[in-house]
Design brief:
Helix 1 runs antiparallel to helix 7 (154-181), helix 1 runs parallel beside helix 8 and helix 7 (154-181) packs antiparallel against helix 8 (187-220). The protein has helices at 2-24, 29-40, 42-79, 94-97, 99-124, 142-152, 154-181, 187-220. It is an all-alpha fold. The relative contact order is 0.13. The protein contains 8 helices and no strands. It has a single domain (2-220), classed as 3 helical TM bundles of succinate and fumarate reductases. The chain binds protoporphyrin IX containing FE (HEM). The site of protoporphyrin IX containing FE has 23 residues, from helix 1, helix 2, helix 5, helix 6 and helix 7.
Length: 221
């Protein structure tokens, strides 16, 4: 879980960097250039299936761990009277107890996200992608597709904000717990990883929520 989780974080760093070009360059040229590179570079072509496998493994491991924890907790609660009065919330943070639910919210977001962008760019196409760019006719207008959807469908922006917040909360626990599992943590570093986890989660939640909000609000003023 730790290794697949940290691998997915690396993907998110690249993804957020590419997406931030939507904010920094309103001509769309930078984002279209980056999206074209991501879609055509052979190395990225190899990394993509690895990413998909990483995501699937992460989900399978999470399901097994959550199931095992649930079974253990049920045994503890039913067999030993002294555990009965213990509340589930004692000794653990809200995020650590709700990692699976947060993961399910992110997965739901991801399905909606992939249908709207990835699927169209890779398989079905979209008239917005055909709009001309000053980079030549073989470069799809990914900027037109992404920004038009965020402007036309306000509900989609809401879904992105929910997805980003769930991602931030998931990473808050995920980062330090990964390093703990890998054995790269002691009493002092546990505190440091916790701080690093908070910073990473704020950056990702803030960054991924900011982009659709920025596009939508800019179109209204
Ligand atoms: C501002 C928010 C976001 C924007 C504008 C955005 C945009 C895009 C676009 C345009 C694609 C298609 C790229 C292509 O096929 O070449 C894509 C793919 C993808 N996105 Fe996002 N994304 C955002 C947030 C997220 C978040 C929060 C996650 C994960 C939780 C995510 C995960 C993915 C994955 C797994 C793919 C498919 C892999 C790939 O094509 O590289 N995205 N995104």
């Amino acid at each position: 879980m730790s290794i697949t989780g940290l691998f997915l974080i690396l993907f998110l760093i690249v993804h957020l960097t590419v997406n931030s070009m939507i904010v920094f360059d309103s001509s769309g040229e930078l984002f279209n250039r980056a999206a074209h590179f991501m879609a055509t570079d052979p190395v990225i072509g190899i990394i993509e299936p690895v990413l998909a496998i990483g995501l699937i493994l992460h989900f399978i491991f999470a399901s097994i761990i959550t199931y095992n924890n649930q079974v253990k907790r049920d045994i503890n609660y039913s067999s030993f009277g002294r555990y009965k009065s213990r509340k589930a919330s004692e000794g653990s943070a809200w995020t650590s107890r709700n990692m699976y639910i947060l993961g399910a919210v992110i997965l739901t977001f991801l399905v909606i996200h992939l249908i709207n962008f990835f699927w169209k760019m890779k398989f079905t196409g979209d008239p917005l992608l055909e709009q001309s760019t000053n980079l030549g006719s073989d470069v799809e207008n990914a900027y037109a597709l992404v920004t038009t959807k965020f402007i036309e469908w306000k509900w989609l922006v809401g879904i992105y904000v929910i997805g980003a917040v769930a991602l931030g909360l998931h990473l808050h626990h995920g980062v330090w717990s990964s390093f703990q599992t890998l054995g790269w943590s002691n009493r002092r570093w546990r505190h440091n990883w916790n701080i690093i986890g908070i910073v990473i989660s704020i950056l990702f939640a803030g960054g991924f929520a900011f982009i659709p909000l920025f596009v939508m609000i800019k179109s209204m003023v």
